[in-house]
Amino acid sequence: MEAFKQMLGELATSKKFMAMIVGVIVAAGAKYGLDLDPAMVNGILALFVAYILGQGLQGFNKDAARIAAVSAASLSEPSTPKADKAVAAMSESVAAKE
User: Fold this and answer.
1) What does the alpha-carbon distance between residue 28 and residue 64 come to, in Å, rounded to a whole number?
2) CA 62 → CA 16, 20, 40, 45, 84, distances in Å?
3) 85-96, pLDDT tens digit by residue?
4) Longest C-alpha distance within the chain, in Å?
């Protein structure tokens, strides 16, 4: 149950999730009440999709850069407490996502 609460908290602060909610509201409003031009609604929804994809790619690149930085720090000689702490934090982060 705690994991579910944590997931809801992460969703509530996610830019991608909020963009999706606004997109659904725009689409529902256009279909069930607002007198909007379908081409305009499609353009707005395309912007939301592009934003969500862009945020996803940015997050992916950020994770890849973090992994590369931690790998480089852990492979440096000699091992430092800071590098060891970074590797441990990355391991915990990856384990928490699984």
Assistant:
1) 36
2) 15, 21, 33, 26, 20
3) 777 777 777 666
4) 67
